[in-house]
Write a structure and sequence with these properties.
The complex is a heterodimer of chains A (799) and B (139).
Chain A: H1 5-10, E1 14-18, H2 22-32, E2 38-42, H3 45-54, E3 57-63, H4 71-80, E4 88-93, H5 97-104, E5 111-115, H6 120-171, E6 175-180, E7 185-188, H7 190-196, H8 214-230, E8 234-241, E9 247-258, E10 264-273, H9 275-304, E11 308-312, E12 320-322, H10 324-330, H11 338-341, E13 350-354, E14 357-358, H12 365-372, E15 376-385, E16 390-401, E17 407-416, H13 418-436, E18 440-444, E19 450-453, H14 455-461, H15 465-468, H16 473-476, H17 485-495, E20 497-505, E21 511-521, E22 526-533, H18 535-579, H19 586-609, E23 620-623, H20 624-641, E24 644-650, E25 655-658, H21 660-676, E26 682-693, E27 698-707, H22 714-717, H23 736-746, E28 750-758, E29 761-771, H24 783-792
Parallel strand pairs in A: 1-2, 1-3, 3-4, 4-5, 24-26
Antiparallel strand pairs in A: 6-7, 6-10, 8-9, 9-10, 11-12, 11-17, 13-14, 13-15, 15-16, 16-17, 18-19, 18-22, 20-21, 21-22, 23-25, 26-27, 27-29, 28-29
Chain B: E1 7-11, H1 15-28, E2 31-35, H2 38-47, E3 52-56, H3 64-74, E4 80-84, E5 98-101, H4 105-119
Parallel strand pairs in B: 1-2, 1-3, 3-4, 4-5
Chain lengths: 799, 139
């Protein structure tokens, strides 16, 4: 309020009285005194205008006829000033027609007039009306002004709070929006734009909002509409499409904002992302379901487990639940609490022993694991039941801890190993049997890799278990299958078994024949092989066959001999008679003699080819030197052709009592072998001498035959004297040394041999020791030693 | 003279060889009786005087060694010589005094017969032909 201060002071209105006559002013003053107004007097129009500017004048009492500026002029001037356009004017005028017309011209404003003479009551009444009017309108103005100020202030506050609200709404993690009363969205917060990437225009109407998940769209629209119609808050959970193309779950709420009359002015809504929560809830639900399943599974497993399981539910084992298997094992009713069954005061259903000692309750595995706060490793116990049954039990236990790490119970597991123990004993026995078996027993996989190899196999093949484990058996043994390895394998797979003879090599290269039985264990995927050495048997059988053959040949030879020799004798006798017949002349006798000689040749041949016979049935003293010379004589041509140097020294002329044919056969064989061993020439050394035999107290004749030929391979050494063993493949019968040894043993002699590398070749020596012919034999002193030295250079193997 | 000639009983199932052997022995100076089987031989032995039996080994109806065994049981002093075309000495040859091969020829045969007879104190008369030497060698 910048206008007149007077008005404010006492709330009195100002009345300006303008008249050039002071008396009139005084009379008006007197008339208006009772109006409770400030009466301001002006003596001219000019003064009146000046006072108007100073005061807030409610009514101007204006004399029309005044000098200088009359009343109308002043009124015109007032009306030109905007401030005074509505100021009430009360003209005082003599009644003239002209004046009246002019007064009427002001009637748009607050103008009235009073004619002269002034009637005091009229004046008072008219001024009073104007003054009251002024006061009222001034109050109204003040009121308006105050009202406007308030509105302005309120608007400012509202703007401020809206600004704060939006800031707030943008800072919350939720999506937020505002809609007008009919649900038309006019504002979304920044989070909403960030999340959806959509524009306001596309999503103002919930019905066409494409961000709602199609499955939820209709429900959300219906819910929203209901809310708008009733004004009730709304809440729903549904997925909203994000700008990344993924739906996320939101919990959306909207609440009405009402005006002072309680009408809904707008809706405020938020959407809270609960995807994580939903996922977490889902996960928890799944986990719970899984947990329940696992618990159910564990419960089932525990019940069906063949292993006895017990659970102690407290640290003192006052309640122990067994599973079915444990109840069976302990011989108690299923479901009975073990804490009660173990109570010895009532006679326990079972007792635990270890190494024959009865265990106290505290020594039992679960109790021990609780006391020690750690698992008790698997230990073997004996359980004696009330029914007298003794069971070997393997048991272990572990304590159970609660969340605070305190022991809350224990779990024990018990396994009946009685059968297994028995089985182990049985298996051990069987394994021992396997080891005792003379057969080679091996287990291999289908690829042939050795898994087991018994002592018999070690003995037969010479390969030790650790040397062949993990290697293919039949490669190691160089097995020759009679029908091919593939056929054997297919027989094993199709029929589960195979048997037949195999030819295999031992570690030292010796060939063995085994009768093999093989069984394929499908479930184990392994092959059990039992190989029996039938080499000797086979050789014996072969020998028998050959002996039979020889015998048959002998019989044939005998028959032939008989059939040829009989007529030969007759012819010989006939020629004998013919040759000596006196009637023959010289020429005829000569012819007969030729025929007789040729016959003698035939006889000689049949004797040589169809068999020897002993000249005598009684042993005679045989000169070994003579015998050796005879044999050498027969070999002489071979020695010369073979460039073999003969080095013979006879240091004794002793005889041996026996049959010359047999002894000749021995030396013929030894010397023949020596010659055949040196196809490219060499040195044949023959020594004979006497040697004192300490053991039996007699003088023996020792004959050695040495060659520098091919030598005897170590692996052949011990088979050398076996029948039908030959290194000469086609040449020999394989019987020579065997027969020789037999003959020598019959004479109570020995034959030994040794073959060693010597001067880049081999030195092979056979030494025959025969008992001398007793006192008749002459011992040449010193010669025995010489032979001994000779032989000593060649260490001899025992035969 | 004839009564001093040792009598040899020749036994063989084959007639021709038996006849030739008889001739050869007679040529040598022996008196020879013959038999073609064991039974035959035993009959001859019962009927005649025999100083030595020279028998084949393989014959139908029994072997020479069986004959020898039989003879030694009843006439222990009578020498028996086996003569065989078979080169193998039979296991029971011990019953005979000697075993000779048929293919050794007459000379060897004479020698061995003479040796056996000599052991029994018998011999041919001094005018007995000397055995042919040199052309029959056994080795």
């Amino acid at each position: 309020m910048h206008q007149g201060v007077q008005v404010n002071e006492n709330q009195k209105v100002n009345i300006l009285m303008v008249d050039d006559q002071p008396a009139k002013l005084l009379s008006y003053e007197a008339i208006l005194a009772g109006l409770d107004a400030n009466l301001i007097k002006a003596r001219s129009g000019r003064e009146g205008l000046e006072l108007l500017l100073k005061h807030d004048v409610a009514v101007v009492l204006l004399d029309v006829s005044m000098p200088e500026i009359n009343g109308f002029e002043m009124a015109d001037m007032m009306r030109q000033h905007p401030r005074f356009q509505k100021t009430a004017i009360l003209f005082i005028s003599a009644v003239r027609m002209t004046d009246l017309d002019r007064i009427k011209g002001y009637q748009s404003g607050a103008v009235d007039y009073i004619s002269v003479p002034v009637v005091p009551e009229v004046l008072r009444a008219k001024v009073g009306v104007f003054a009251e009017l002024h006061r009222k309108s001034r109050e109204l103005e003040n009121l308006n002004r105050e009202l406007e100020q308030r509105v302005e202030q309120r608007t400012r506050q509202l703007q401020e709070s809206e600004r704060q609200f939006r800031t707030l709404a943008n800072s919350i993690p939720q999506l937020a929006w505002m809609a007008d009363a009919d649900g038309h969205v006019f504002w979304y917060n920044d989070r909403w734009y960030d999340y959806t990437g959509a524009s306001l225009e596309d999503t103002q109407d919930v019905r066409s909002n494409k961000l709602l998940h199609p499955d939820h769209h209709d429900r959300v629209v219906a819910g929203s509409w209901h809310s708008w119609e009733t004004g009730d808050p709304w809440e729903d959970t549904y997925p909203i499409l994000g700008k990344d193309g993924q739906y996320r779950w939101f919990l959306s709420r909207s609440v009405p904002i009402r005006d002072s009359e309680g009408k809904v002015a707008r809706w405020f809504g938020t959407s809270t992302d609960i995807s994580g929560q939903i996922a977490a809830e889902e996960k928890i639900k799944q986990l719970n379901a899984q947990l329940e399943q696992r618990v159910a599974e564990l419960e089932t497993i525990m019940q069906v487990l063949p292993v006895g399981v017990a659970v102690a539910h407290d640290p003192v084992c006052s309640s122990v639940t067994p599973n079915q298997a444990l109840s069976n094992l302990l011989g108690v009713d299923p479901g009975i609490d073990l804490a009660r069954s173990l109570d010895r005061t009532g006679g326990s259903a079972y007792d635990f022993y270890q190494d024959g000692r009865l265990l106290t309750k505290d020594e039992l595995p679960m109790q021990r694991s609780i006391a020690a706060r750690k698992p008790v490793p698997t230990t073997e116990w004996e359980m004696r039941r009330a029914d007298g049954k003794s069971i070997q039990v393997l048991g272990s236990a572990s304590p159970l801890f609660d969340a605070e790490g305190e022991v809350r119970g224990a779990v024990g597991a018990f396994f009946d190993v009685s059968d297994r123990k028995r089985m182990e004993d049985l298996l051990r026995e069987r394994a021992d049997l396997l080891e005792l078996a003379s057969e080679a027993i091996l287990v291999r996989d289908p690829a042939g890799v050795v898994q087991y190899w018994n002592a018999g196999a070690e003995a037969l093949y010479g390969w030790e278990r650790h040397e062949v484990a993990g290697k293919p058996a039949h490669q190691v043994l160089e097995t020759e299958f009679p029908v091919g390895a593939a056929n054997v394998e297919s027989a094993l797979i199709n029929e589960g078994r195979w048997h037949g003879n195999l030819i295999q090599k031992t570690r030292d290269g010796r060939e063995v024949i085994v009768a093999s039985r093989q069984v394929f264990k499908k479930e184990a995927g392994s092959i059990l092989e039992i190989n029996r050495d039938i080499t000797a048997q086979t050789r014996a059988e072969e020998a028998l066959r050959r002996t039979e053959k020889l015998a048959a040949m002998g019989r044939v030879a005998g028959i032939i001999a008989h059939e040829i020799n009989n007529p030969l004798e007759a012819i010989t006798n006939a020629f004998y008679l013919l040759r000596n017949h006196p009637s023959l002349d010289e020429e005829a006798r000569y012819y007969a003699q030729l025929g007789e000689e040729e016959l003698a040749r035939v006889c000689h041949i049949t004797k040589q080819t169809l068999g020897f016979y002993r000249e005598s049935q009684h042993p005679v003293d045989v000169s070994v030197a003579g015998l050796l010379d005879e044999v050498l004589q027969l070999q002489m041509r071979q020695l010369q052709l073979g460039r073999i140097v003969l080095d013979k020294k006879y240091l004794s002329n002793s005889t041996v009592r026996g049959f010359p044919v047999e002894l000749r056969q021995v030396f013929f064989n030894l010397i023949g072998n020596a010659v055949q061993a040196m196809p490219d020439g060499g040195r044949l050394r023959i020594r004979m001498g006497d040697r004192w035999n300490e053991r039996v107290g007699r003088t023996d004749l020792v004959i050695s035959v040495c060659d520098t030929g091919a030598g005897v391979r170590p692996e052949h050494a011990k088979h050398l004297f076996e029948p039908f063993f030959t290194t000469k493949s086609s040449k020999g019968t394989g019987l020579g040394l065997w027969i020789s040894k037999g003959i020598i043993q019959k004479y109570d002699g020995t034959i030994q041999f040794r073959s060693i590398p010597f001067k880049g070749g081999n030195l092979t020596a056979f030494r025959v020791r025969l008992p001398g012919a007793g006192p008749t034999a002459k011992v040449i002193a010193g010669t025995g030693l010489a032979v001994a030295d000779e032989i000593a250079r060649v260490p001899l193997g025992q035969t | 003279m004839d009564k001093h000639k040792p009598v040899i009983l020749c036994v063989d199932d084959e007639q021709l060889p038996l006849a030739l052997r008889k001739l050869v022995l007679e040529k040598q100076g022996y008196k020879v009786a013959t038999a073609s089987s064991i039974a035959d031989a035993l009959r001859v032995l019962d009927a005649e005087h025999v100083d030595l039996v020279l028998t084949d080994q393989l014959m139908p109806g029994g072997t020479g060694t069986e004959l020898a065994k039989s003879i030694k049981q009843t006439r222990a002093g009578l020498p028996v010589i086996l003569i065989s075309g078979v080169n193998e000495i039979p296991a029971d040859a011990v019953y005979a005094d000697l075993f000779i091969s048929k293919v050794e020829g007459p000379a060897a045969m004479f020698q061995k017969i003479a040796a056996v007879l000599a052991e029994h104190g018998l011999s041919l008369a001094g005018d007995a032909p000397q055995p042919q030497a040199g052309n029959q060698k056994n080795d």
